[in-house]
Amino acid sequence: MIVAGLGFSSTATSASLRAAFDRATAGQAVDALATAADKAGHPALAEFAAACALPLHFADPADLAGQRTLTCSPRSRASHGTGSVAEASALAAAGPGARLLSPRQISDDRLATCAVAIGGQT
What we know:
Blueprint: E1 2-8, H1 14-25, E2 32-36, H2 43-52, E3 56-59, H3 61-65, H4 74-80, H5 85-94, E4 99-106, E5 112-118
Parallel strand pairs: 1-2, 2-3
Antiparallel strand pairs: 1-5, 4-5
Helix pairs in contact: 1-2
């Protein structure tokens, strides 16, 4: 399974998410979206997921903190215990043995990030 993990600020828009997603996926097919569980109610996330017609997985804090990421945002480390919510979410949702295909990419407005992981079973 190929998963696009998303990290974003409370002021991110659907366009912010789209920009980060497009940059990270570079046209590659994706099977699902993932993000931190505490971002579940964000309206831009719901709008973006519906527009993509992809299932959305929510990673628990323990699942995020246990992931090794390629990049490190001090804000992400402080708020979620991981260097990148996007990378950690993608890895957690892709399952055991997952690896990153794309480290986090940042939207031009700097409000959203996206990373892509592939499951170890694929």
